[in-house]
Amino acid sequence: MADSTQPTTAVAAANPYNPYQDLDAPIKKLYYLPTSPEHLYPEKAPKPYRPFGENLVSCTGICYLSGRTAGIVHGGVRGLNAAGAGEPRRVRMSRALSSGGELGRRYSNAMGIVGLYFSVIEGWINCYRGKDGILNTGVAGFGAGVV
Questions:
Q1: 33 forms bridges with which residues in the sheet?
Q2: Spatial CB neighbours of 105, under 8 Å, sequence gap ≥ 6
Q3: pLDDT for 69-111, tens place per residue?
Q4: What does the angle CA 125 – CA 144 – CA 120 come to, to the nearest 5 degrees?
Q5: C-alpha–C-alpha distance, residues 126 and 140, integer Å
Q6: From CA 39, how far away is CA 124, in angstroms rounded?
Q7: Which of 8, 65, 69, 119 could be cross-linked to 59 through a Cys-Cys bond (beta carbons 3.0 to 4.6 Å apart)?
Q8: Contact by Cβ (8 Å): 51, 44
Q9: Strand, coil or helix: what is 79?
Q10: How far is Cα 14 from Cα 3, in angstroms, rounded to an integer?
Q11: What is the rounded distance in angstroms from the CA atom of residue 52 to the CA atom of residue 110?
């Protein structure tokens, strides 16, 4: 019967790891961690860039949330500055929240569209060139700004 604490030939180059090493447990090496990256789908491992759908969702989502945050902050400040000196606190907060919601909606939609343009252009360039790089990102940013 083989010892389960000894590495097999496939993981012989793995790093031995014991999560209980500070507790002076009698087990010397409990796990063998791999030294190379592991991929959930091995057929996607050799790709030098992110898949188009992943890039589309992440770029659009990041731009949308950035626009929403910037719009809420800008609208809230604008709403607080527009409030009169004698207005009650409830009215001032209501004005700030309404203004923040309105500008947040505008900014998030605009930035989400820019992120969508950017990710589509970058996906086309990645597909054309076959690799990812700073040139792709720069051209995609320029293209999204032009559109």
A1: 15
A2: 68, 71
A3: 999 999 999 988 887 778 888 988 898 899 999 999 999 999 9
A4: 45
A5: 10
A6: 25
A7: 119
A8: yes
A9: helix
A10: 16
A11: 21
Q: Is the pLDDT of residue 10 over 60?
A: no
- 128 touches 105 (CB < 8 A): no
- pLDDT tens-digit profile of 11-39? 455 677 767 777 776 766 667 777 777 77
The whole-angstrom separation of Cα 51 and Cα 70 is 29
At residue 25, φ and ψ (nearest 5 deg) are -75, 150
Q: Are 93 and 41 in contact (CB under 8 A)?
A: no
Total-model pTM: 0.65
Residue appearing with tokens 């076959």: 130
Structure tokens at 99: 């203004």
The two three-digit tokens of residue 115, written as one number: 């992120």
61-73 pLDDT, tens digit per residue, is: 999 999 999 999 9
Q: Judge contact between 49 and 132, C-beta under 8 A.
A: yes
Q: How far is CA 15 from CA 3, 11, 25, 92, 117, in A?
A: 17, 9, 19, 60, 44
d(CA 117, CA 141): 9
